[in-house]
Amino acid sequence: MDCSHVFEFKVKRLIVVFTLFLAFLSVSSRVFAQADTAVVSADTAVNAAHTEGAHGAGHGEEKFEPTKVIMEHIADSHMWHLWGHLSIPLPVILYTPDAGLEFFSSGQFHHGEHDYAGAKNTYRLVNDKIKIVGADGQVDEAASSKILDFSITKNVAAMFIAIAIILVIFISVAAAYKKRVGKAPKGLQSFVEPIILFVRDDIAKPNIGHKHAKFMPYLLTVFFFIWINNVLGLIPIFPGGANVTGNISLTFVLSLFTMIIVNINGNKYYWKHIFLPNVPFWLWPLMVVVEVVGVISKPFALMVRLFANITAGHIIVLSLISLIFIFKTLAIAPVSVAFVLFMDVLELLVAFLQAFIFTLLTALFIGMAVEEHH
Amino acid sequence: MELVTPTIGLVFWTAVAFVCLLILLKKFAWKPILAAIHEREQSIDEALNKAELAKHEMARLTAQNEELMKEARAERDHILKEAKALKDSIVHEAKTQAHTEGAKLIEKAKIEIENQKKAALAELKSQVSSLSLEIAERVLRSQLEDKAKQQDLVANLLKDVELN
Fold this sequence. Notes:
The complex is a heterodimer. By secondary structure, chain A is mainly α. Chain A is built from eleven helices and eight strands. Chain A has helices at residues 4-8, 11-51, 66-74, 141-144, 154-179, 188-208, 212-234, 248-264, 268-275, 284-327, 333-370; strands at 79-83, 86-89, 91-96, 100-105, 116-117, 122-126, 129-133, 148-149. Chain B contains two helices and no strands. Chain B has one domain (8-162).
């Protein structure tokens, strides 16, 4: 398969971006290593303290466990924690085979301290997972595994907010286009237009060719959806801060859509390449397997790449912040803040870069599927 | 492991929300935006093409003007030349005509003069003869007034006649 045009694609511009990116990575990996060792050492210290039977310290002072804090943030939640003990309760929507659909507020759990008695089952929040409590007051794992949790969790809510922002931005921009027909762009329009043109002229056109118009809505939507969600994830306070694009479920859905679009639009050459590859016939059994795996592995790579990049960014920032609490001194704060600032700036780049790469690779896969051979 | 396990709830909501977003944006944002951008690009292209065409037209017109000027100049020169030639020929013709006419007149005048001269000579001749006759008559008359002289003359005449 001829992929050379991908590598020639705006080579100079990309080289600059990637050199910067690599330069940042080499620095940030060192930071990551530092943070990691700090976390590990803190963990061992905490564990040591724990095993020494430090219960005497009392409940007044909670022990700081960075891994737990970070993992809690990275994972999804049924509440949107604001600050201190204040959090926004979110709607819980459960489907169980015996009780059907049930709606209630996650505030009913009182941060997991109370059980909620539904129509038939009693629910308990264990590590932010909803479980069914049996008659004996213990968690009934067998019944719990049958729960289908369609709750509006923190990530879902954050995604809805991002979608609302995207809709507001682009519908107002579209209105501006209708109002200012044939005139130069202005305001928000002039901010968005170069990006739209970038997606069209530098992502879609070189990879898909003359059929790009059909795929523009999907590419643009994916690009802005990922980008806006990435950027919102960097904002530490309420409307942002959720690890939306760093959640495997979301990246799974996006890459699934890419896979569906690529394979629906695949032409006969695409399918011929998979099932009748241009190799000696005795290699067919091997090549067909490889090609079929390729169909799945390409979107799989998209899924993992976006998930890992964004999650890693969140973990690094949180680890750096955790340093202050691990060392229990304000003296480390300037260092942490400096590194966090650096990481946030880097994450701004990564936010754009990951949206760009996801869109670019989607365009590339579509391009391969619709390519005409002569 | 929990981190890399998709949860049904988020998968469901993401799929629903993303599809809704895609449909809404496609209908209300991308279509008008891309159409407007396309339209504007076309109009810019068109305007540039038109400018280029106008430039060419301008150049063509200038060239044409130049050509016309050149032609007009050549025409003028040609006409002037022709006029000059015509004038020259007319003058020349007039000259030659005048010349021949003059020569003819002179010839005529010469003939006339000759004729007049001849006529005058003839008249002179006749007048001289009549005058001489008259003189002779008068002389004779005066000589024959007396009889003696007449007889003399007759005698003289008869003397000549007798010999015959």
